[in-house]
Amino acid sequence: MSTATRFTEAERTTLRAIHEAAQGRDFERASALADAAHKGGLEHPMVLNLVALKLEREEKFKQALKVLDRACELAPGDPAAGNARGLCLHRLERYAEALAEFDAVVLAQPAIAGAHCARGAALEALGRLVESEAAYRRALELQPDNIGAVAGLANLFSRRGAHAEARSSAERVLTAQPNYPDAVMVVAKSDLAEGAAQKAEKGLKALIADPRLTAQQRALAQGLLGDALDAQGRVPEAFEAYAACKSGLARVYAPSHGAGIGALTFANAMIEVFDQVNPNVWRSRGAPAPGAVKTHVFLLGFPRSGTTLLEQILASHHNAEALEERDTLIDAARKFMSEPRSVLWLATADEAELSRLRAAYWSRVRAEGATLDRKVFVDKHPLNVFKLPLIAKLFPDARILFALRDPRDVVLSCYRRNFVMSGSAYQLLTLAGAAGYYDAAMRLARRFEPVLAARTLVVRHEALVQDFDRVVGEVCLALGIEWTTAMRDFSERTKDRGIATPSGAQLAGGLSAEGIGQWRRYRDQLAPVLPILAPWVERFGYDAE
User: Fold this and answer.
1) What is the DSSP string of 465-505?
2) Does 53 reside within a domain?
3) Interacting residues of 416 by C-beta distance below 8 A, sequence separation 6+
């Protein structure tokens, strides 16, 4: 039944007025008229979409989503309602759900450039950068002046270290929309890459002063300002900017990640459980990797310890397939890590249950696009260190590469860089949280040394940078593949693979020792957490000073 037949003449007049305002791009008036109409009891998809837009501008995203849910009920399959719902889900950082909405929109209406652009943003947020670029480019084919798509490409170029292309795209955005936050930050990164730190500082300070910025945008700009100040050797000011960034992000994410049991508290509680159990219970005789895999490898350690560098090196080998930071163990984690004590169920799980979870793991690996084909398969996720119980029990034949770096450089780098927000990333928003989480990770790894030492190779980041061929040769020997000169050219592959971690732009520039020993410049700022890290500095053999 047509919705128009249900409205009174007065309501139809109101709808026409709203439509005219929206068509004239007077969205403020259109939203105000729609809000008043909705409060008066008028329900229509267009009205609900505009009411939701008003709520989103007020950063009331959950309320907006409820309104959009109703719009989709009234007009199932309507592209405008679906696209609006996808945008709201994106703002709520429910990226997989947002992507599903945009997929449905472009399937129904392939010529809607905005939906392709929004789809690109969702793919980027999910770390699927190659697909993201294709979506942005499709949006520009349909609408060459789509600013969102140009800005999206600029950001992707910047993430892989293509700063000249990034600047060109960002400046195109700024010509159309001065002080567009993402574009200003891309230009600042290009300035930093070219050694123009003062220029970057000036642009970022102007952006930070803009009252139109969201709290998240301002925090991210402050973090980048920290890099500009650091490049000028102004360490105390740089640290102050990093702290402003982290405290700003902590406020933004407190409602979603600051309540309940935090990841650090959970990890410490889980370690207490392990202390009560004989390590031998984690030994297993489970099934080997499927025939499609030559060697199964978990690459882990801690964020900013060099896992991405090592993954890119291995991915450059013709006989290796590497998967970057996908939650392939989520099924097993839900079963055996829903609470600290539930991990004990894993110790006594029967083979039928373990077999089911192995199958679920390999299903997710394939769903993520991994082509196994009798290759060495590298599953890289630094925080899988907290899932060592699962790895030990489920995959007794898997090799483990443990990336190690000076704990002080690791914690400082975690504090200076930003990550896709999660329960774990939330712990890295304070120095104390980052140091405590590192300590928990290393304590857990130490608990599992008796079980895993024989199949674990520790790869020191500093040694890899200083003696590349020797260390990579040792890794190849451990994994049963020959060393090839192609592995030296790993930086070339970063352009094609699309690295979703903060290391992307750095790795595009090749091997660098720049990050080694950076903690010394921030010794005073790190002083409160150095005692937490000192036992690991000593245990791993790093110089105390």
Assistant:
1) HHSHHHHHHHHHHHHT----GGGGGHHHHHHHH---STTHH
2) no
3) 223, 226, 227, 230, 242
β-partners of residue 402 are: 300, 458
CB 411 within 8 A of CB 436: no
Query: At a CB cut-off of 8 Å and minimum separation 6, what does 222 contact?
Result: 208, 241, 242, 244, 245, 248
In our burial notation (b when 16+ CB lie closer than 10 A, e otherwise), range 379-415 reads bbbbbbbbbbbbbbbbbbebbbbbbbbbbbbbbbbbb
Shared domain for 509 and 401, answered yes or no, is: yes
Distance in angstroms (rounded) separating the CA atoms of residues 258 and 526: 23
pLDDT 10s digits, 186-198: 999 999 999 999 9
Spatial distance between the Cα atoms of 113 and 105, rounded to a whole number of angstroms: 11
Q: What is the mean pLDDT of the segment spanning 72-86?
A: 88
Is residue 38 in some structural domain?
Answer: no
**Residue span of the structural domain in which 210 resides:** 155-258
Domain's final residue, options 203, 237, 258: 258
Q: Residue 483: how many CB atoms within 10 A of its CB?
A: 16
Handedness of CA 287, 290, 296, 300 (dihedral sign): negative
**Residue 518 class from Cβ within 10 Å (0-12 exposed, 13-18 middle, 19+ buried)?**
middle
DSSP state of 40: T
3-state secondary structure of 376: strand
CATH number at residue 432: 3.40.50.300
pLDDT per residue over 221-254, tens digit each? 999 999 999 999 999 999 999 999 999 999 999 9
The pTM of this model reads 0.89
Mean pLDDT of 93-115: 95
Strand, coil or helix: 293? strand
Report residue 84 as tokens.
């609006």
pLDDT value at 286 more than 70: no
What does DSSP say about strands 375-380 and 320-324: parallel, antiparallel, or unpaired? parallel
Same domain? 358 vs 239: no
Q: Are residues 318 and 412 in the same domain?
A: yes
Taking only the tens place, the pLDDT of each residue in 469-524 is: 999 999 999 999 999 988 988 877 665 555 555 555 566 666 788 889 999 999 99
Whether 284 and 249 map to the same domain: the answer is: no
Q: Are residues 318 and 407 in the same domain?
A: yes
Q: Give yes or no: residues 388 and 499 share one domain.
A: yes
